[in-house]
Amino acid sequence: MDLKASRADAPSDGPAICIEGLVKDYGAVHAVQGINLDVSRGEVFGFLGPNGAGKTTTIRCLLDLLRPTAGRLEVLGLDPRRDSLALRSRVAYMPGELRLPERMTGAGLVAAVGRLRGGFDTRRRDSLAERLDLDLSRRLRELSSGNRRKVALLLAFLADAELLVLDEPTNGLDPLMQREFLALVREAKERGTTIFLSSHVLSEVQRAADHVAVLRQGTLVAVGGVDELRRRARQRIEVWFDGPAPTQELAALPDLVNQHTEDQRFTALLAGSIEPLLAVLARQHVVSLLVEEPDLEEAFLDLYEAAS
Amino acid sequence: MRGRWAELIGGPFRASWRAGLGWSIALVVLIVSTVAFWPAFRGASGITQAIDQLPAPLLGAFGLEGFGTPAGYLRGGLYELLIPLVFAAAGVLFANGATAGEEDVGRLELFVSQPVSRVAFFAGRSVAVFAWLAVLTLVALAAQLASDQIFGVPIDTGRVVATVVLCGLLGAVVAGLCLAVAGLAARPQLVQSVGFSVAYISYLILALFPLSSLLAPWREIAPWGWALGGDPLVNGAEVWRYLLLGGPAVLLAVLGALAFERRDIRSA
């Protein structure tokens, strides 16, 4: 499946990320199989998929850490390979698999990365460390995996980059810190930063992202707004009738699946328009009607089921 | 820009200080403990006579010619095998640790994604490796010259300097080879295998080829021979030996940087 997001609200200076026909093979393993994607400037874009779907491979191609087998990439209007140096000064990246130099202190690592980036604002460093409840004087090997992730988050948000690429940023963070992370994302967005957020934590993406792409086995299975994606998912329907349910009429409805009747109670999943169902219900004595909006997790699972 | 280069070179240099300290201590202990026995050998003519009675090819193979002389004693005890071996091993391990070893465990990703070119990144690490070998060379030189003074080894200082510097350059050329392999692939086992194999084989060539009249003319075809084939403790060293070791060391590191620029970076 090959989808491409189109944005009516895309600014005139082009998308922050443009991926066309990206293919990345590792020998016989096809990690990414020709994906197309646009990410607008200034938005929070969620990149969803389970482990092994190709999210990290795509991200690493965007940052010129991997060389694509085929396809064209453009990040902030630059070619990641040809303009890699210029691009990296405008992008901050937080790797998903964090391996930090264990003997360094957090402050030492921040200083080292700062020297490579031409310097960091120390007041902002201290402020971020306080918000993330992070002791930068401790050696990285003494920190828990969650605290190491906080160090990487601090580095990413400290860079004041135009594009933040965060690969599974909240793995190992406690709920309080996840909330702080979302606040940092919102603040960065308000400053005009584009945030490309890879995750398999759907609730996090649901709260943070404007648009999402769902990746499965190296191909995109859906791209769209979070609300749009939810709409595309099946809604759970529950109807209580003032008498026996009209099972024959309901069975004839094309978009109503997994139908189940129990005396006066009828449940099903609605995969399309609700109008035909409402037409049937209008002729009945209905006691109650419940239409549950699916969350992104259900939407995600639905898309996966549909794709497989 | 200066801060960036200071980090590109200084970062990996500082990260290796424990290894550098360990190698320094090893060199000092090795040199001092060997030279400390010189006074005993100087007076024990029986031992030197017994060694001199060994077949000439064996004496040559194990660097024991003239074992009763200061140069022969230092050659047989230190500079035939042990000191160059320490430098070669340090070269392999420093180079591997700064590049393929770090990349293999995913520690390079965060740094390579910063605004520095891959060539500059790799060059910085290569310079750090060579800098540590230079430090070890100075440490070995200081330990040797001090021990010579303390234990009364009458030997020309210039020849000692030449020998120790050539050992350091042997380490550098082996390190350069490892950097080239690491630039091609983030495989630490491969890097170490290639480095140690080349060092060992080149020692065998210098030590064993003279045992065969057919192979003897080729004894200096490998780096160990370039460094020590001319018996620098006795004869000093020609300029071409320094160039033949230093040139390829730098060239191989440059090839490594160019290869590193062209391939995928390994993640954890």
Features:
A: alpha/beta; Rossmann fold; Alpha-Beta Plaits; 2 domains; B: 15 helices; elongated
Give an account of the 3D structure.
The complex is a heterodimer of chains A (308) and B (268). Chain A is α/β, with parallel strands linked by helices. Chain A folds into 2 domains: 17-225, Rossmann fold (3-Layer(aba) Sandwich), CATH 3.40.50; 233-307, Alpha-Beta Plaits (2-Layer Sandwich), CATH 3.30.70. Chain A is 33% helix and 28% strand. Chain A has 11 helices and 13 strands. Chain A has helices spanning 55-62, 84-88, 106-116, 122-131, 145-158, 175-190, 202-208, 226-232, 247-251, 275-282, 296-307; strands at 17-26, 29-39, 44-48, 70-75, 91-94, 163-167, 194-199, 211-216, 219-225, 235-241, 256-262, 265-270, 286-292. A 6-stranded mixed β-sheet of chain A has the order 5-6-7-3-8-9, sandwiched between helices. In chain A, strands 11-12-10-13 form a 4-stranded antiparallel β-sheet. In chain A, strands 2-1-4 form a 3-stranded antiparallel β-sheet, with helices on one face. In chain A, β11 (256-262) and β12 form a beta hairpin. Chain A is elongated, with a radius of gyration of 23 Å. The relative contact order of chain A is 0.14. With 268 residues, chain B is mainly alpha-helical. Chain B has one domain (2-261). Chain B is 76% helix and 0% strand. Chain B contains 15 helices and no strands. Chain B starts with a helix and ends in a 7-residue tail after the last helix. The interface between A and B is medium-sized, with 29 and 26 residues.
